[in-house]
Amino acid sequence: MVDNSLSPHGGVLVERVSPPEEAGDLIHGLPRLAVREQIAHECVDIAYGFFSPLEGFMGEKDLDSVADDMTLASGYVWSIPIVCDVSAEELDRLGVVTGDSLLLTSQDRPLAVLEVQEIYPYDKERLAQQVYGTTDAAHPGVQRTQAYQDRFIAGPITLVNPPVINPPFDQFWHTPRQLRQTIADLGWKKTVAHQSRNVPHSGHEWLMKGAWLAAGADGILVSVVVGEKKPGDYIDEAIVLGHHRLREAGFFREDVHLTSILLWDMRYAGPREAVFHALVRKNLGCTHHMFGRDHAGVGNYYDTYAAHQIFDTLPNLGIRPVPVQEWWYCPVCAGIAYEGLCGHQEQKQDLSGTLMRSIIQGGTEPNPLSLRAEVLDVVQKCAKQYGFGSPFVDETYLEKRTPVMSMPVQGCTDCTCNHQH
């Protein structure tokens, strides 16, 4: 059985998924609102409890409290707005008012029912300033906030048509309840989470090993963020399969390492997003979360170790931060070295993104002190199989990739049937 002492945030794991036999009645006659992929992801995350204790999209009191005090109106710490935006014109067209129910659709198919408890406007400039500490339009999170429509609709959601997770992600997709059971089955009493959105190089490998030792952990949960991509990013398939390869190749024992995915579009909110990541991984059953340099940051908006400092200002969240510094290659030490130990900082050789790209693109010979050959092999295979020749996102990938999740014809979960009903 799952160890109930490792409770989810708020004490109860939220699960709002309609039984298949009831879904048809729930959606019958409802107005339909098509939502973008980000909102679809967040409906799934809410419904399965990744965002516990949230049961739906935030109302104005919760949003005010999150923006100003980094808590929900209930008092539970929460750091990132989870909102569903819609234009006033669309609401008028649908004739939706407070008290109605609304069918949210994705890929032209039913997804979730939203019970509309509030419809309200919000000061987007103020929201950006509070959450990101800036209103600079160059910040990707500010851009996302400024692009919101002029109304937020709030209320609990119920998933009525669970999506199909497509290969190769399907083998790494686990709901919080499933992950918590897997962690219990593995016998892990202490689990340290590693947030990732990059192909793992040797610095990442040692970041995980160092955090495992620092936490006295039984296991490492790699939680790969899969969501919105921009040109130049690593393709999602290479990230997930690259991490899994570390376990397959024995760089981590099978009983201490597990790879999973989280459907989430990064906000790059720096320390606030670090808190959010900790809460989500708490819901997955983790007891610890590692935080390296510039966690969830972008540009120069946040201090290098802001994600370390913010936890000193918060109450006990039920998941312990494991602050770690940088790992690099030191030619004097002749190996991977740790910022907190190595005295040759002037000679250090950063395991930079530029170096990794030159290795992956064939300009530099790989070695185990930079990128494992086994990981490089996976990345190159992913480029051919999933990336249309490149391990990096480009317009072709964005246009033609197989989506991470597909919406079945309602009641159909067999993704091989091509939905011919």
Describe the structure.
The chain is of the alpha/beta class. The protein folds into two domains: about 20-165, Roll (Sulfate adenylyltransferase); about 170-400, 3-Layer(aba) Sandwich (Rossmann fold). Helix content is about 30%, strand content about 20%. The chain has helices at about 20-25, 35-50, 60-70, 90-95, 125-130, 140-145, 175-185, 200-215, 235-250, 270-285, 305-310, 355-360, 375-385, 395-400, and strands spanning about 30-35, 55, 85, 100-105, 110-115, 120, 150-160, 165, 190-195, 220-225, 255-265, 290, 320-325, 325-330, 335-340, 405. Strands 1, 2, 3, 4, 5, 6 and 7 form a seven-stranded mixed β-sheet that branches. A five-stranded parallel β-sheet has the order 11-10-9-12-13, sandwiched between helices. A two-stranded antiparallel sheet has the order 8-16. Strand 12, helix 11 (about 305-310) and strand 13 form a beta-alpha-beta unit. The longest helix is centred in the middle third of the chain and has 14 residues, at about 200-215.
Descriptive tags:
2 domains, Rossmann fold, single chain, Sulfate adenylyltransferase, 32% helix, disordered C terminus, 421 residues, seven-stranded mixed β-sheet, five-stranded parallel β-sheet
